[in-house]
Prior knowledge:
- By secondary structure, chain A is α+β, with helices and mostly antiparallel strands.
- Chain A has helices spanning about 10-25, 30-35, 75-85; strands at about 40-45, 70, 95-110, 115-130, 130-145, 150-160.
- Chain A has a 6-stranded mixed β-sheet.
- In chain A, a hairpin with a 3-residue loop joins strand 4 (about 115-130) and strand 5.
- Chain B is an alpha+beta fold.
- Helices cover about 25% and strands about 25% of the residues of chain B.
- Chain B contains 11 helices and 22 strands.
- In chain B, the strands form 5 sheets. In chain B, strands 13, 14, 15, 16, 17, 18, 19, 20 and 22 form a 9-stranded antiparallel β-sheet that branches. Chain B has a 4-stranded antiparallel β-sheet with strand order 6-5-4-7, with no helix packed on it. A 3-stranded antiparallel β-sheet of chain B has the order 1-2-21.
- In chain B, helix 1 (about 25-35) crosses helix 11 (about 410-425) and helix 4 packs across helix 11.
- The interface between A and B is large, with 43 and 46 residues.
Amino acid sequence: MSAGLDLNLDLWFRVQAFLVREARLKDDHQLTDWLALFSDDLRYWMPVITNRIGRDLGKEMSAFGEVAHFDDDKTSLTNRVKRLQTGMAWAETPPSRTRHLLGNVEIMAVAPDGVLQVRSNYLMYRSHLEHDHELFSGYRLDHLRPHGDAWLICRRDIILDQSVVTQKNLGIFF
Amino acid sequence: MKSHFEHVLDMKLGDLDRSIFSDPQTFELELERIFARCWLLLGHDSMLPKPNDFFTTYMGRDPVIVTRKADGTIGCFLNMCRHRGNRVCRADVGNARAFSCPFHGWTFGNDGRLSNVPGYKEIYLEKLDLDAHGLVPVARIDSYKGLLFATFDTSAPSLLEFLGDMAWYLDMILDRRAGGIEFLPGTHKWLVHTNWKFPVDNFIGDSYHGPVSHKSAWVSGFEGMPRRKSGYGYEGFQVNPGGGHGFGVRWAENRDQVFEMALPEFLDYEKERLEESISRLGDLRGLHFSPMHASIFPNVSLLWQGGAMRVWHPKGPKLTEAWGWCFVDKAAPEAYKREKALHMVQRHGTSGTWEADDVDNWVQCHSASEGYVSRRYPQNLEMGLGDEINDPQSIHPDIRGRLGKFQSEINQRGFYQRWAEMMDDPSVPAVPNMSRRDACKVSS
């Protein structure tokens, strides 16, 4: 939808509410419920960002298939959640306190089969143990496939603004 | 500050002085006596496929540019303009014949030569000595089967001498198939608030932590360090080739045990390459030894089955920047390479289900080296002390170096002994002298 000229306020509002709930499930550590928002053919991907100059401007993002920060399907994402739920995932025991904030939600395209391409910016604060804390920022491009009266996320590309990750791990979800 | 380091590791008790992880002056001395002297890993040949390709990295705390010069040879220079010291290259990777300093415009060829100075005629009246103001080169650059190393010390031994028998063992990783290995595109970089020696210590010989640290990953579908299903599952050795290097191996009696240890997703490939590996490496390195984890002195680590290669860049006594790559046999099928990248990313990368728990442990261990009282209590490195395998050749006639049991801290002890020897050697690293006024000498 271009420049909001034919903005479907109802659709935009429902997408925003869907994403806000999705963020809350992560912050509340309700990860089993969170996983249910993703389709079985999920691609959950975060590329690596490289500093480039000159002719290479625009090539900062690693290509899909290259070494990435996250490169998960539904099975491996589910296994990541299972790991956190074992009680033995020491790096998240106790779990990080996170606050996922999202904004700048835009419906970029609606495919003929009803799949929405939604771009949003995120800020996520993470506090772990006593002193470890970080602010992550970036944007996401989600593909939302109609499912009942809401959607399933069938693709999530997450762009993290950092080239060097300034935290000890990316052991949390975006 | 310690005046000498000979006694930081008590070889009778296996006690290690914990203050070496936090003392700022020890860290400063490490930059001189370890990082300005040793051969340091820059990356892999495959990162510079074309003429004029470059990438930037660090040697110790010094930023460097690594270039594939027009003639195909590799150059490595301080990423520092000789005028004010500004970084002449702000990109991580790229392709360039020259680097122009963004401050005043001094321009250097990718062979390091100062090729253009704004106002050379009008301002400097052609008096500026261009030859004396090129980018500072490393003393020597060399590669071992594709791995690129450089040293700032003109008096350093050759790379092969520095690696010693570790080079012969590294063939198990680098030379298993014709064509050797390559790094897949993409570098993980992340900051860890710990001393660089903790991760090196972990990778060089800590087979002990797996069942505790990584249990959550094992039981959740992220099997990563395959065990033999027969026996007790931990048959193997810690191998100490000297020089501060070390690695751990699983032992397979025969081909069936090699296949038994392979992860299901890699079994077909293991079957495809085993005979070639044995014919290239012989039966000790190609069949019986199945490398697990390793560190190359001072700051390189790798996991063979995990496909993970690392450099731990020292940033401060309590700050390390981890750089990670995924390596594969060049001759492997594309589908295997993709599978290996996924394996590495999901287990050993920035979001790695194995890596996260390791990193957090090192961060916590580091805290114990900071407290006034806690750092007075040494680390315990006595595992396997006095219980080394005295006649390794009885295990296999080709074995080189010393051998400990699979659960033994022989390699950590070897690392800290080598570290202490270098820290106690007062000779100043002979860094390349580019200056007319002899100012490049490291002041002590």
